[in-house]
Amino acid sequence: MNTENLSKEQRILRSMRKILASVVKDTATKPGMPHPLSEGTIQDIRDCFGAISEREAELAEELGLNRNEKPYYRDQPQKSNVIKLHLDKHED
């Protein structure tokens, strides 16, 4: 979706999600190494991701958008085809 078409709230939510994801990536440690963030902070980040996701879902529902859509290239073959069926009603 083009960011120009997003509301101010949607842009803020998207920005917050990206920033939180960057913090998580930047503080990731190798297995067995102590994490620089406390367990409380990690849980707060999880809660924040959850709140962002819930609000994005509410906004999408209000706008009638499908949140399960995935981007695809125009020349990419589609996995599903629409088949139109015409049923004739016969009177007996």
Care to describe what's here?
By secondary structure, this protein is an all-alpha fold. The chain has a domain at 3-63. It is 48% helix and 0% strand. It is built from two helices and no strands. It is elongated and about 75 Å long. The termini are far apart. The model has no long low-confidence stretch (mean pLDDT 83).
What's the structural blueprint in terms of helices and strands?
Layout: H1 8-26, H2 39-63
What is the structure about, briefly put?
48% of the residues lie in helices and 0% in strands. With 92 residues, the protein is mainly alpha-helical.
Task: Name a few traits of the molecule.
elongated; single chain; mainly alpha; 92 residues; 48% helix
**What value does the Rg take, in angstroms?**
22 Å
Low-confidence stretches: none
Mean pLDDT: 83
> What percent of residues adopt helix (DSSP H or I)?
40-55%
The geometry reads as elongated
Spatial gap, N to C terminus: 52 Å
Share of residues in strands:
under 5%
What's the helix-strand series? HH
